[in-house]
């Protein structure tokens, strides 16, 4: 190993850390993602965990590389293992770069809307970024193990065996958790496997190193060596191992104190623009954002828990406020730096931006109690406010998280905009009497806005402008519906179309309207600033911005001054649509008073009442109904009404109101889904009750199925919504209603393994004896999935264990065949042990089925000695297969010795004459072949040359399919090489025909005869040439050079002629290189050149001519090369295309180079010229080529026919025209 390689790896990875931090920071600084918690946490991990560790390793190795390489423990392989681990970290960084670069590239060149689209793209990448971040956390543990070993080898005072042991245990636990992680795709899964192997190698080397150092104590430590400054500034003393951090979860930043953090600059610093990727951007403070609701699943912990065992004090402490500049809260206030729980406080030594490390030999002290945040100073607040104002033009993107998509999009936040607005200067339209909408009091604490109730709904702060406008655009394209057959795929919306980057940016009106800056709006209007009537991103007017966020005063002011409030944006949403969807009832009322159309639908047919009902905005629904909007509006596609969509989303108050207003719950969607059906299938029991009872309820839809035959009870039972099932049953739902496949609610509940629902249905009288169209009972349905608890319930309620379906399958057979369900099989055997050998209609027993499927647990359960009667291990299917042959055929190696140990006969012959050895050899299962050949049983030894009904031996089968390891095994056990099947093929023939060069080589070494011929005269050599297996041809010629021209098939073709006639240019070139004779003709005088020309293989004709092929030589019946080429026609020979015109053109070109070489009018023995041949084939292109070359159109063959006669006789009109254009001779009077 190169001593410099680890140092070079560390240096490269440090650069990768910087690049990753810059890329992620560039995205954050552009205010792109709503997923900034993952990005900020990634920055923290790279900068605070990996980078210091890499810097320490880099410094130690550069200063002590030769010493470390020659250390007395180096033989344990920790440095090569570390080198592999560093390479693995590099792979992870490359994956991160591949995810970040496209977003950074879009950010650096995008407009306002382009940044919004970039945020959407990042939303699709964020889960992948979280996976890579979790992988880096695990890899950091490996780096720390390596650093501790380096420090121990160089005598660092705090590098101890205890510290190394703690790191090894932590890394081992992380590796175990990593094995259960989900990987992004196939390539990433392979990377994950390699990562696990690399970590295992590193852990093994570290454990060996630990054991050696424990038994061979190191000599007295040398004085600490100064390795240089760590990343970011100066350092005193020598490098120290970073201290283990508290347990940290995958997708979440480390814990911190104070309010949620934002990436703002310090108050004293002016705002800095985003730098292009590759330049140092402004990164802001280092504290990441708090975890969000869409944080990915936790990652494996890399650190031991803080109690009861204290962590070793061998790492750095978190930098103090004086080192990092503190953390920034929402208000711009600085808070104290966060320390890991259970660790010691960091020494607050301000030295620029660098770190000062402390070395404590004592266990870490408990952390101090967090002090309450200090109130910001006036200067600080002013600076923060100034910063906020200066960046007010930046969009606040907060796009929805679609990582988990419901049937219908979840409701967006409702606005807390004021409910009333100043009186308009112009008289609005007179509205119907509407109950006043009273706005809730403004909360005193910002956090209270998330829990305050309004009309039964959780209220929330107004959505950001990007949330409102961005969501409106997304909703225009993405409205999944209940029971939809089309699944959402985020990639469908990532079309990489950069045209959106050219959309106009927002005007000052848009920005002020969405931020609620009324004074700025007035200033812009009064000053006559342009942009009032300009559309911004998504084609929206400033009134869209105000309406979506709920700034009613601004909205009315804009309307009064002529702003457009009725036009729709790019996806058809008007300001009224936006206000309805985002829950701004005051804005809705205002727009209605000014005459906005309450029925105007978007491009995808969403009306304001549909959007409000879908998102649960009761006050808006009331307002629209009282304004005269149809409460049963069916404008939206598939006939979804407001009542149906509200029921599907669980908005009880909206459902109750619509029912009170007389909404028709009998209206179903195009798929037949009723409100009660969708409420039941989504588990909204109270909505189901509201739809069925009370003054407005109606039970007429209780048992009405959708188009697929699913009743409300069926839907609720399928999803295990027990409360909804109970309500439906209380109102008399039909327990025995069936869908189109005759499945009842009990069937689906049993199939999905819902014991609570099954128990409830049984208690209400559901029948356990109903059968589906396939004849399967609920017991058979749950046996298929192996749900033991449901099986027990059904059996206790009288289900018949012996009931068979249409295929003759008992529940026991179904459980054995469908999965490895040993507990289900054991339970069914307790009730009916006599069914253990009951076959299906095809003769398959439970044991044979389990062996065929590889269900080893079921095989053991069926062969248990306690069973009475025992499973019949010799039972055969209708094809004559035993359980042993079934397992051998499918390659289930672990089952073979179990069956043999229980007395399976390895010599049992099936209906095709095969034994288990034939099946295993034919399918390439070398382990099973070995097991069958080496396991001693009570039966006669296996005949290794056993022939089946086709007279094929195991060696034949394995050689034919190229199973090299099986061929090797069989030959080692004395299989006969020269056996033949009825066609006369030997195993060597079979391998040559199929091109298995490795098998051919092995058979030749074991004595196979390359000159043997099949009954039709074909030798292995000619068979290989006929199929274009050039490598096999070369192997055979290496063994027997005389085969080159001597081996012929029954028609007398040599290998060269065969390959030329079949179109294998590679094989032809190899045979020519070997010196094959070009003039050797077959029994009819055809040379290889004749054979290639006859098929129209221009490339082969050219190769043979250039090698000296006889262009003028005739066949026994007088055919010339050009005559044969002209009649080649069109089409294919195998996989090769004919090229008659190209071949003729090439041959005619020879005449121009060597006069008289090719005669265009030369007839064959019966007077056919090349033009006759081409005309007869209807090849108009070749006809024209020959006519241009001087072919005589009036030539007659032996029967007196001209080329024109032949073309006319076969209906080739185009050929006739070409001949007429070439001369009238072809139409001469006979």
Question: Care to describe what's here?
Answer:
This is Ankyrin repeat-containing domain protein. Pfam families: Ank_2, Ank_4. With about 1250 residues, the chain is an all-alpha fold. The protein is built from 52 helices and 6 strands. Among the domains are: about 220 residues, no CATH class; about 100 residues, Ankyrin repeat-containing domain (Serine Threonine Protein Phosphatase 5, Tetratricopeptide repeat, Alpha Horseshoe); about 100 residues, Ankyrin repeat-containing domain (Serine Threonine Protein Phosphatase 5, Tetratricopeptide repeat), CATH 1.25.40; about 90 residues, Ankyrin repeat-containing domain (Serine Threonine Protein Phosphatase 5, Tetratricopeptide repeat); about 150 residues, Alpha Horseshoe (Serine Threonine Protein Phosphatase 5, Tetratricopeptide repeat), CATH 1.25.40. Helix content is about 45%, strand content about 0%. The strands form 3 sheets. It has a two-stranded antiparallel sheet. A two-stranded antiparallel ribbon has the order 3-4. The C terminus is likely disordered.
């Amino acid at each position: 190993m190169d001593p410099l390689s680890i140092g070079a790896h560390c240096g490269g990875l440090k650069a990768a850390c910087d690049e990753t931090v810059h890329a992620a920071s560039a995205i954050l600084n552009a205010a792109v993602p709503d997923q900034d918690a993952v990005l900020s946490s990634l920055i923290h991990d790279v900068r605070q965990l990996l980078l210091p560790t890499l810097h320490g390793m880099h410094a130690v190795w550069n200063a002590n590389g030769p010493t470390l390489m020659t250390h007395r423990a180096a033989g344990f392989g920790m440095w090569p293992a570390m080198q592999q681990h560093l390479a693995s970290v590099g792979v992870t960084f490359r994956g991160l770069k591949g995810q970040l670069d496209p977003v950074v590239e879009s950010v650096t060149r995008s407009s306002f809307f382009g940044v919004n689209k970039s945020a959407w793209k990042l939303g699709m990448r964020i889960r992948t970024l979280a996976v890579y971040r979790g992988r880096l956390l695990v890899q950091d543990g490996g780096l720390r193990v390596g650093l501790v070993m380096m420090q121990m080898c160089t005598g660092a005072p705090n590098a101890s065996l205890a510290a190394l042991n703690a790191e090894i245990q932590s890394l081992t636990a992380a590796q175990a958790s990593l094995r259960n992680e989900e990987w992004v795709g196939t390539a990433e899964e392979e990377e994950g496997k390699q990562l696990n192997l690399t970590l295992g190698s590193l852990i093994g080397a570290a454990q060996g190193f630990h054991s050696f150092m424990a038994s061979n104590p190191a000599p007295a430590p040398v004085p600490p060596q100064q390795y240089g400054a760590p990343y970011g500034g100066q350092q005193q003393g020598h490098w120290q191992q970073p201290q283990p951090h508290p347990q940290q979860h995958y997708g979440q930043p480390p814990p911190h104190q104070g309010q949620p953090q934002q990436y703002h600059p310090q108050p004293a610093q002016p705002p800095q623009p985003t730098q292009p990727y590759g330049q140092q951007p402004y990164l802001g403070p280092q504290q990441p954002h708090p975890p969000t609701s869409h944080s990915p699943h936790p990652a494996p912990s890399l650190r031991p828990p803080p109690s009861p065992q204290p962590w070793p004090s061998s790492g750095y402490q978190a930098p103090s406020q004086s080192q990092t500049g503190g953390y920034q809260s929402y208000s711009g206030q600085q808070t104290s730096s966060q320390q890991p729980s259970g660790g010691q406080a960091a020494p607050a030594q301000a030295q620029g931006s660098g770190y000062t490390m402390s070395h404590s030999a004592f266990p870490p002290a408990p952390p101090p109690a967090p002090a309450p945040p200090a109130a910001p100073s006036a200067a600080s607040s002013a600076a923060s406010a100034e910063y906020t104002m200066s960046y007010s033009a930046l969009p606040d993107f907060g796009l929805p998280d679609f990582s988990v998509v419901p049937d219908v999009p979840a409701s967006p936040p409702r606005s807390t905009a004021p409910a009333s607005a100043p009186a308009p200067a112009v008289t609005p339209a007179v509205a119907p009497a509407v109950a006043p909408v009273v706005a809730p009091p403004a909360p005193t604490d910002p956090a209270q806005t998330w829990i305050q109730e309004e009309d039964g709904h959780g209220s929330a702060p107004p959505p950001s402008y990007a949330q409102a406008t961005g969501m409106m655009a997304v909703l225009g394209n993405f409205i999944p519906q209940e029971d939809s057959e089309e699944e959402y795929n985020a990639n469908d919306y990532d079309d990489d179309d950069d045209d959106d980057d050219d959309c106009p940016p927002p005007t000052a009106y848009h920005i002020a309207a969405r931020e609620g800056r009324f004074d700025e709006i007035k200033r812009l209007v009064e000053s006559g600033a342009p942009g009032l009537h300009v559309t911004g991103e998504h084609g929206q007017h400033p009134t869209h911005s105000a309406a979506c966020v709920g700034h009613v005063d601004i909205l009315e002011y804009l309307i009064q001054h002529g702003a457009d409030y009725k036009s729709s944006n790019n996806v058809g949403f008007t300001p009224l649509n936006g206000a309805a969807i985002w829950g701004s009832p005051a804005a809705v009322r205002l727009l209605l008073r000014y005459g906005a159309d309450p029925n105007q639908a978007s491009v995808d047919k969403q009306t304001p009442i549909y959007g409000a009902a879908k998102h649960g905005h009761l006050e808006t629904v009331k307002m629209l109904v009282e304004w005269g909007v149809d409460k049963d509006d069916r404008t939206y596609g598939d006939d979804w009404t407001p009542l149906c969509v509200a029921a599907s989303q669980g908005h009880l108050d909206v459902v109750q109101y619509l029912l009170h207003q007389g909404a028709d719950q009998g209206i179903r969607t195009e798929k037949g889904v009723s409100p009660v059906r969708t409420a039941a299938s989504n588990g909204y029991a109270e909505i189901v009750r509201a739809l069925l009872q009370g003054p407005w309820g109606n039970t007429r839809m209780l048992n009405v199925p959708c188009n697929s035959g699913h009743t409300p009870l069926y839907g609720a039972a399928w999803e295990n919504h027990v409360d909804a099932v109970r309500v439906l049953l209380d109102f008399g739902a039909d327990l025995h209603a069936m869908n189109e496949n005759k499945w009842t609610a009990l069937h689906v509940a049993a199939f999905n393994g819902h014991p609570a629902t099954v128990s409830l249905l049984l208690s209400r009288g559901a029948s356990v004896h109903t059968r589906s169209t396939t004849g399967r009972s609920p017991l058979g349905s749950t046996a298929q999935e192996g749900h033991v608890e449901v099986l027990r319930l059904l059996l206790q309620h009288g289900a018949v264990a012996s009931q068979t379906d249409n295929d003759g399958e008992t529940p026991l057979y179904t459980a054995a065949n469908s999965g490895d369900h040993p507990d289900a099989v054991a339970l069914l055997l307790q009730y009916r042990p006599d069914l253990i050998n009951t076959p299906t209609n095809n003769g398959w027993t439970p044991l044979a089925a389990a062996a065929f499927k590889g269900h080893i647990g079921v095989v053991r359960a069926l062969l248990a000695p306690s069973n009475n009667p025992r499973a019949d291990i010799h039972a055969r299917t209708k094809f004559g297969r035993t359980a042993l042959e079934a397992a051998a055929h499918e390659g289930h190696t672990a089952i073979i010795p179990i069956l043999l140990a229980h007395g399976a006969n390895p010599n049992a012959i099936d209906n095709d004459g095969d034994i288990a050895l034939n099946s295993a050899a034919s399918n390439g299962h070398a382990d099973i072949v070995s097991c069958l050949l080496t396991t001693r049983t009570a039966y006669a030894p296996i005949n290794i040359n056993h022939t089946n009904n086709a007279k094929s031996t195991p060696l034949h089968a394995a050689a034919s399919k190229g199973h090299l390891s099986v061929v090797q095994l069989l030959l080692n056990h004395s299989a006969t090489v020269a056996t033949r099947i009825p066609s006369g093929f030997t195993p060597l023939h079979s391998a040559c025909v199929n091109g298995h060069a490795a098998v051919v080589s092995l058979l030749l070494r074991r004595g196979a005869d390359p000159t043997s011929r099949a009954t039709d005269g074909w030798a292995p050599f000619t068979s290989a040439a006929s199929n274009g297996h050039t490598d096999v041809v070369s192997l055979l010629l290496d063994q027997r050079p005389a085969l080159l021209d001597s081996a012929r098939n029954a028609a007398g073709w040599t290998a060269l002629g065969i390959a030329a006639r079949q179109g294998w240019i590679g094989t032809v070139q190899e045979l020519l290189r070997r010196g094959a004779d070009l003039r050797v003709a077959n029994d009819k005088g055809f040379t290889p050149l004749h054979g290639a020309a006859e098929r129209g293989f221009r490339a082969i004709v050219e190769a043979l001519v250039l090698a000296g092929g006889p262009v003028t030589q005739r066949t026994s019946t007088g055919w010339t090369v050009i005559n044969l080429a002209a009649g080649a026609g069109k089409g294919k020979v195998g996989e090769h295309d004919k090229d008659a015109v190209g071949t003729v053109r090439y041959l005619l070109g020879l005449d121009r180079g060597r006069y008289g070489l090719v005669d265009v009018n030369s007839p064959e023995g019966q007077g056919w010229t090349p033009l006759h041949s081409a005309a007869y084939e209807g090849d108009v292109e070749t006809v024209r080529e020959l006519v241009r070359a001087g072919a005589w159109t009036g030539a007659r063959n032996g029967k007196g026919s001209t080329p024109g006669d032949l073309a006319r006789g076969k209906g080739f009109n185009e050929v006739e025209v070409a001949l007429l254009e070439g001369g009238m001779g072809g139409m001469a009077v006979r």
